[in-house]
Design goal:
Length: 132
């Protein structure tokens, strides 16, 4: 006997005037989540190969990071080949290239070990001036 007919029989015995109708449907939480697309914001992406191009002289640098992209940008502007370029060249380079500047771009993303290989490939292909 189905649960609905059992409940109806019990309701007839105890509450003669009460009519109960059970409605049951299965709905998996997974069905709700399949329609949701989640993308990680650019600044929080990790395990990536990035490229930084000077906004003034178009010198570029290719690197990889396991950290969040915003931390990578901040650290590069404090100490790296990019920092050396910005401090040794004309002040216009430093003024033109900031963390808000879109000169930092993500080239590729992958697992921790594959990004090292991809970084080397991108350096070989693009021959960036600041990587020397």
């Amino acid at each position: 006997m189905l649960p609905q007919s059992r409940v109806q029989r019990l309701a007839k015995k105890l509450c003669k005037e009460l009519k109960i109708k059970l409605v049951f449907s299965t709905y998996k939480i997974n069905n709700m989540l399949n329609n949701v697309e989640y993308t990680i914001p650019r600044v929080l992406q990790t395990h990536l190969v990035y490229k930084c191009t000077c906004a003034r002289c178009y010198s570029c640098y290719v690197g990889e990071t396991r950290w969040h992209f915003t931390i990578c940008i901040r650290e590069n502007l404090k100490s790296s080949h990019i920092y050396k370029h910005l401090t040794t060249h004309a002040p216009e380079c430093k003024d033109a290239c900031t963390s808000e500047c879109r000169r930092f771009q993500i080239i590729d993303r992958d697992t921790q070990y594959v990004i090292k290989i991809k970084e080397a490939m991108y350096i070989k292909w693009s021959k960036p001036v600041l990587n020397k």
